[in-house]
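hey all, quick one before standup. I had two proteins in the batch that finished overnight and I want to keep them in one place so we stop losing track of which output belongs to which input. First protein below, input sequence then structure tokens straight from the run.
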Amino acid sequence: MFHRIWYLVRKELIHLRRDVLLVSFIILGPVSELVFIAWSTSAPIEHLPTAIVDQDRTEASRALVVALENSETFDAQYFPAGETELSSLIDAGTVSAGVLIPSGFARGLSLPISEPPQVQIIVDGSDPMAARAAEMSGRGVIGSYAQERVLETWGNIAGQQGEIIRTDVRVWFNEELSDANYTVPSEMGFMLEMVALMIAAISIARERELGTFEQLMVSPIRTGELIIGKAIPAVIISYVDFLLMLGITVFIFGVPMKGSLPLLLVLALLYIFVELGWGLLISGFSRTQLQALLLVMVLAMVGMVFSGYAFPVDTMPPLMQLLANLVPIKHWLLIMRDIMLKGAGINMFWKELVALAILGVVINAVTLTILRRRLD
């Protein structure tokens, strides 16, 4: 019995030694994924890009700005002159939060408390996790600052006279902070990625596994024609799945569609072509369909980490933020949420669109070059 077990173990080890790709996946895949997730998610939500409109421009208002920055939740990067510029920054997704300090803020703190000064916090509700962190931190910082400021001036009597500063928090684009409005479109993006990758990844690998690949190579079909022929069915199936998922997202889960539906449909086709390049590249390197699917899972998990879906990219270390820009789904989720939740046009997300187009050109060019060399 022990001899039979030993021979079985030896046979399996020989198979693993010959399958370098599978061994690399088993060893390096989980380790690297654990490192990426732990590194990206170990830090709390902090340093959210913030715009400050200080209409008071006094020592008291500047002290409040410093207090907000010291909380480490807010990172005051922009100081627009008025509410119009602040609205533009939030519309474009440049900042996650905005703070409006009105004129007369310092005077309101120095007078007896009858009509407390109002500080307005505007958060981008298209990312509920970051919005909640900004809302809670903003209320806490402003409350603590107001209490300390008034106690210095009026003592304990002021603390018994009611509200010191009235904090007005407004949420844009997702007023009820519904998690579904954020998670459902993101899940739709991931499902579209998985479908495009899997269908493209198993196309050539299936031919190898069934033993029909050599017959294709000796036929009059050219390499480029073979790649295009494999790509077209993947595009059609992926796009049909996207249409079905979009209908379910809007009509069943009630996610608003505030932007242009034709624009979303066109850009979805562009995104499918980008992911298609990765899928065909995986298919060209895979000997079996199982290997192709395993590589798809690795690529999809990396995309989830760097997409900003589970954890905001802005809170990641600088190196991780740089790597996130190389992941197509990160740009696609931003574009899709901007169109559906904000009703934005190309002028609001043109940077993400350019990045997605560049990634598509590079990925597909590299894929075509490598496949031609491997298949010719």
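OK second protein, same deal, sequence then tokens:
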Amino acid sequence: MNHISVQELAQRLSSNDASIQLVDVREPQELEIASIEGFVNLPLSQFAEWGDQVPNLFNPQAETLVLCHHGIRSAQMCQWLIAQGFTNVQNISGGIDAYSVLVDHSIPQY
């Protein structure tokens, strides 16, 4: 599994590259506290509700960046996506916590 730093994520987001797929696996109550625009929320706790829809929602060949709070749940999602045939998946190291500390201080920490 590949990793991307939060600084690299910020650069990618600022480039407005429409080909990047952004997935946030945190819970809805976490998104209410802190979020980054452009991410599709697929809470891991609700996997049964969205798991079979992933091939219809996303392109398995497109670059897919996965976010969570610290990088653990997103790593699990990355492994699952790879098992589903996704070929360019990257875990965002440190998650939104690192992003709020190192990139955008306006995003609340929790």
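Flagging for whoever picks this up: The beta strands are 2-4, 21-24, 40-41, 64-67, 89-92. The chain has one domain: 2-47+62-102.
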